[in-house]
Amino acid sequence: MDKKNLKESLENTADEFSNISLFDYKNFYYPPSEDPQIPVQVVHGNYNKCKPDYCIQRKDYPYSVLEYIISGDGYFEVNNERYDIRPGMIFGFSPGVPHCYGCSFEHQDGLEKITIAFHVFDNTNYPVEQLLNRAFHIKDPVKIQNLFAEIIHEGLNDSLYSRRIINRLIEVLILLLLESDFQVQPYPNSFHTFSKCKAIIDSMPSVTISMQDIASECGINSSYLVRLFKRYQDCTPKHYIDKLIVEEAVKLILESEKSIKEIAFQLGFTNQYYFSAFFKKHMHVSPSEIRKIG
Questions:
Q1: DSSP state of 69
Q2: What is the torsion angle, in degrees rounded to the nearest 10, for the CA atoms of residue 179, residue 183, residue 189 and residue 195?
Q3: What is the mean pLDDT of residues 165-185?
Q4: Which residues does the UniProt record annotate as the domain HTH araC/xylS-type (predicted)?
Q5: CA–CA–CA angle 67, 135, 138 (5° rounding)
Q6: 220 within 8 A of 212, measured Cβ to Cβ
Q7: Mean pLDDT score of the chain, rounded to an integer?
Q8: Any residues with CB less than 8 A from the CB of 208 and at least 6 apart, and which?
Q9: What angle do CA 203, 209, 214 make, to 5 degrees?
């Protein structure tokens, strides 16, 4: 089976009551091999920003799935159980198990999530079933979210080694989840506030972002915003924003035809010289040097 046929077959698993309504999405497909030396193989991954009316209902799905909620509220139904899903939660299901999930109607911003579908060989020693057909929280949600995101990033990269890398990453993810103190009890409200603030920053990496504006939009003050980021992201909001700006700058420099000046303005800098100094401070090379290397 090639990537196109795999994509079509997975898309056809949703039944007539489903509504795949999205603001944004990114996905990749890797048909599984028959190599038993690879106990867990990622076959599909996607990042979805779902609209409020998003809903998936299936009678069957051919692979195991784990999903991580980045932002928004929703629900997950499986085996006659209903779970409320919120930021930092993970839910999953096994092949052949009917299930349904979607956004909460009262949450107008929709649901932002990452999905990883994978094939597990019967001879594997991983008790993956412990993680499936349920929804749960884990102790270190940011660490787990970053691992989900890295699988998506590498899967989309589609390089010579991407498939091997994501198959190793899914093993690490499963093992970390299995050894985590996962539970059904909700996270404290502080994590939900942090997730909301982080989502705002993630949506617009720019030097013009105001800490006060972000804090006000989330109903907190700037000092509390700093404490939230130190607790859940292990850095200050400024360091996190700087990291996002550098990552976006590198992407634009290497993948777009925009001039350095245009990139500087897009990221909120008043001139390209300020941008170049900022970039060199963090990357130790200038934007133009990065473009030559790339």
A1: E
A2: 50
A3: 84
A4: 195-293
A5: 80
A6: no
A7: 87
A8: 268
A9: 75
Q: Is the alpha carbon torsion for 8, 13, 19, 23 positive or negative?
A: negative
Q: Which pLDDT score, from 0 to 100, does residue 15 have?
A: 67
- Dist CA 239 CA 52 (whole Å): 32
pLDDT at position 191: 79
Read off the DSSP letter of residue 129: G
Averaged pLDDT, 44-73:
92
Beta bridge pairs of residue 99: 58, 78
| Sheet of 74-78, strands arranged across | 55-58, 99-103, 74-78, 81-85
Range 165-201 burial, b when 16+ CB lie within 10 A, else e = bbbbbbbebbeebeebebeeeebeeebbbbbbbbbbb
Q: pLDDT at position 179, please?
A: 85
> Alpha helix (H) ranges present in the chain?
3-11, 141-157, 162-179, 189-203, 211-217, 222-232, 237-255, 260-266, 272-283, 287-293
Angle, helix 237-255 to helix 272-283, in steps of 10 degrees: 110
Question: Domains, the chain, ranges and CATH?
Answer: 3-179 (2.60.120.280), 189-293 (1.10.10.60)
Q: How far apart are CA 197 and CA 214, in angstroms?
A: 6
Q: Contact at 8 Å (CB) between 55 and 19?
A: yes
How many other C-beta atoms are found inside a 10 Å radius of the C-beta of residue 283?
Answer: 14
Token readout for 7 is 């994509």
Pair of tokens at residue 228: 């939230």
Per-residue pLDDT at 72: 87
Residues 60 and 136: their CA atoms lie apart, in Å, by 22
Query: What is the average per-residue pLDDT within 133-162?
Result: 91
Amino acid 226: pLDDT:
92
pLDDT single digits (tens) 216-253:
988 899 999 999 998 888 889 999 999 999 999 999 99
Determine the Cα–Cα distance for residues 31 and 35; give it in Å rounded to an integer. 12
